[in-house]
Design a protein that fits this description.
- This protein is α+β, with helices and mostly antiparallel strands.
- The chain has one helix at 34-49; strands at 2-13, 19-31, 60-65.
- A three-stranded antiparallel β-sheet has the order 2-1-3.
- Strand 1 (2-13) and strand 2 form a beta hairpin.
Length: 66
């Protein structure tokens, strides 16, 4: 098992009217692969935020080995 840090990222408009990227949430996961870590993190994110689909709150995810 490897350890991964999965971040849920969202693009928003900043005070100056320019697009900026913010992190909505970060989930730490132990999983056998990066793909499995992403799927498990999506499930945890949805459960924590009470969502049926993670993309309602984030535009993309970033998976890093931790």
């Amino acid at each position: 098992m490897s350890h991964f840090v999965v971040s849920f990222m969202k693009d928003v408009l900043g005070n100056n009217g320019r697009q900026i990227e913010i992190c909505q949430s970060t989930v730490e996961i132990d999983a056998p692969s990066e793909g499995m870590a992403a799927e498990l993190a999506k499930q945890r994110f949805c459960k924590a935020k009470r969502l049926c689909e993670w993309s309602l709150h984030a535009d993309r995810i970033q998976v890093k080995t931790g």
